[in-house]
Design goal:
95 residues, mainly alpha, elongated
Length: 95
């Protein structure tokens, strides 16, 4: 017969006089916040040398746009090159 390990969290809560004993037994799901503009989207990431990021930032400043818009433009160019629909949304405004 195996002996069950004691629940240390509840033992410590009892010893300290905590009234939150029942809360410790429930594993609450944390609430997550999604920015409205990111609803229905997924991140796409890549790792490149720092110089690449720096040039992209400079280009965004020169063109008065965002990195997001530059990447959307680049993806749309790539899609067009391979005969795919240009589906990346590009915003008119710099954010």
């Amino acid at each position: 017969m195996t002996k069950q390990k004691p629940d240390l969290a509840n033992i410590l809560a009892d010893a300290g006089g905590s009234r939150r004993k029942n809360q410790l037994e429930v594993d609450p799901q944390p609430e997550t916040y999604t920015q409205p503009g990111r609803a229905g989207t997924k991140p796409i990431t890549g790792h490149f040398p720092k110089q690449v990021r720096d040039e992209l930032k400079k280009l965004a400043i020169e063109r008065d746009t965002t990195l997001q818009n530059l990447m959307a433009e680049a993806f749309n160019d790539l899609f067009a090159k391979y005969g795919k629909p240009e589906i990346c949304p590009v915003s008119d405004k710099a954010e």
